[in-house]
Amino acid sequence: MEIVNRVSRMSAITAKVLSADVKIGLVSTMGAIHPGHLSLIQTARKMTDLVVVSIFVNRLQFLTDDEYKEYPRDITKDVDLLRNESVDYIFTPPEEEMYPADFSTYVEVENFGQKLPGLHQAAYFKGMTTSVMKMLHIVKPAFLFFGQKDGLQGAILRKMVRDLNINTEVVVLPIVRDASGLAYAARNYFLTEPQKAAASVIYRSLQAAQAAVAAGETQAKRVIAEIARVVGAEPQAKLEYAVVADPGNLEPLTKIQGSALIAVGAMIGKTSLNDSLLVEKK
Amino acid sequence: MEIVNRVSRMSAITAKVLSADVKIGLVSTMGAIHPGHLSLIQTARKMTDLVVVSIFVNRLQFLTDDEYKEYPRDITKDVDLLRNESVDYIFTPPEEEMYPADFSTYVEVENFGQKLPGLHQAAYFKGMTTSVMKMLHIVKPAFLFFGQKDGLQGAILRKMVRDLNINTEVVVLPIVRDASGLAYAARNYFLTEPQKAAASVIYRSLQAAQAAVAAGETQAKRVIAEIARVVGAEPQAKLEYAVVADPGNLEPLTKIQGSALIAVGAMIGKTSLNDSLLVEKK
User: Fold this and answer.
1) How many domains is chain A partitioned into structurally?
2) How does pLDDT run across B146-168, given as a tens digit for each residue?
3) Are B7 and B98 in contact (CB under 8 A)?
């Protein structure tokens, strides 16, 4: 495993292996490596010949400076965790190489999921797509791995890849959860133990939604009401959004037919958490 | 020479040759092939192993539907001209493959040249950068060739390539002109013979600007006034813009020191023409 700090070196390495017909897998992270990341890495290992894990806290996808500064960073611990996996390269570019002072080029997926409540933070998604586009150019992966927790992100990236003819497949994998059902996430780091216990309500609300669909419910409105009911029962949780959308184009659904992405966002104390699952109506 | 119409086939061809360490050159055109394009192709031939000429009238970079519809298209004539050059592939994707109905991802170079008069048509540049980004992903060139006539375009693309870590070098080559000094351009097709003669005033205005700089003029304002004077003397020409800018970041210059990009746009009848040159102040 080698740690690469320079964009030019990372780019040279991937260009060289590509000419030898090697398939590259990229697990793009903001650090704070958790079991969810490790599961992506294990799949990347099976599907590709060379695994790159990027660790870059992307300023552009934070809505406030404070949020950016407070994001958990512990590169020593991350490297230790990754050393136990078979990762070929850890790519940790410095901020000034990724966004030099005169940086001003952005990639934006427009008119996508804009009708969904809680998704109006266009700046967030524009920052995310721009950073991933740069990573794709530097690392040149055949496959890019994301967790279903960031299911909206995965759907937006699939659209970007298709629209811009990028030769990379976005692979979205199931969420890894702790025993309480809480999805592993960097932001869990901010939770106290009692908050962690409370946060498990998010997954329970998704399970309740799934159960309702399995029991025959097809009205998105009622599924959303069910999520609100379950989250509402937990005093420490504040529902930010609950949406039922077409997983392909993120258009809100009124009726569930075929597959639907159910996504929930909730605040636990001052921490914003997201979770989602795909349901399939036969 | 092979004509490729499908995005997937072009992408497969270039992926295959790249793994054999072949350097690809792309001459990106909207057709109406003229001696300016041929000169780009000849340089591409010298610098690269495989030359792709793309012919695609990019709807996104027209400000009106009429302009888009009226743009000269003659693929048979273009192919005949290219057959005499050593072009490996002509890539002519259909509109619906480049921009399917749900297309919505754009690449934009922000805060670049926005202070320049005549450059406020942000939609034009956003359409241009988006289309070129797609072409770069499909064709994967080591070098992308542009003429100095589109010097502003070249500067914007260089910024895009740098900001997004694209492994392609933008090569800007000198303008090819007819005996009168008029730069070869697709839009010349719309000019009557008397208009063509009148259009040569654009290059004469640039020559006058260059002569003024060579004679010691360093004030951009006076150079611009000189251009306006020369163009003003031609009744069939209407100056649209005359700018003196830093070729690196397109910021308008007040004083000429080192290199400066002098660009002129003028209407001849209903046809908008552009020309530019680089001056070097020692």
Assistant:
1) 2
2) 988 777 788 899 999 999 999 99
3) yes
